[in-house]
């Protein structure tokens, strides 16, 4: 047997979770919303929509985008976006460790 | 903002979680699968099916049922069922405390 879980942040509605974390990590890695969306098998529209909603709900900009140029534009994390990613990543590791410890204590 | 989560136990498939915990707690409280199902707005068939599946996957009996009699039969937790409920309840409280502490540490 093993423990499984999902964890996310809400403010009335879903604000931030593993899906958005992965999307932003891919955007950071690939420098483009379009390429990140492709790599995660979602549409550009869907990826962009999720980022925009999160930005609205968090009240911060997560991405800076450039349009045009040789590579057809690109996107990168803002300072606030990167800070959120780092915080969320640490939070997730702690949560994972804590839940597994609870599981071990009672069912291990 | 607040943290939200779901946690459950798996063995390849879902084995035990908050839904089953609530169902068994209602059965324990009301002494009947039928009354518990009603109180949780599910069908008898659904309630019974969930308990049976969990029993198979856990390899233990969770309920003892009586048929007939003045009250038309009833159900109660086995010793193993009660032990699982107690363990799961403590596990859930620890998980809740731990996740909220992680949230406070990073986003509080």
Question: What can you tell me about this protein's structure?
Answer:
The structure is a homodimer of 108-residue chains. Chain A contains four helices and four strands. With 108 residues, the first copy, chain A, is α+β, with helices and mostly antiparallel strands. In chain A, the strands form two sheets. Chain A has a two-stranded antiparallel ribbon. In chain A, strands 3-4 form a two-stranded antiparallel sheet. In chain A, a hairpin with a 1-residue loop joins strand 1 and strand 2. In chain A, helix 1 packs across helix 2. The mean pLDDT of chain A is 94. The interface between A and B is medium-sized, with 26 and 26 residues.
Descriptive tags:
108 residues; Arc Repressor Mutant, subunit A
β-strand percent of chain A reads 15-25%
C-alpha termini separation of chain A: 9 Å
- Please identify, by name, the CATH architecture of chain A: Orthogonal Bundle
The greatest inter-chain interface is formed by: A-B, 26 and 26 residues
Categorize the overall geometry of chain A: elongated
The quaternary structure here is homodimer
**Helix vs. strand class of chain A:** alpha+beta
Give the strand line-up of the largest sheet of chain A. 1-2
Number of helices of chain A: 4
Alpha-carbon Rg of chain A, integer: 16 Å
Mean pLDDT of chain A: 94
Q: From N to C, what is the helix and strand string of chain A?
A: EEHHHEEH
Q: Tell me about the largest β-sheet of chain A.
A: 2 strands, antiparallel
Count the domains of chain A. Answer: 1
CATH uppermost class of chain A: Mainly Alpha
Could you tell me the CATH topology label of chain A.
Arc Repressor Mutant, subunit A
Percentage of residues assigned to helices of chain A: 55-70%
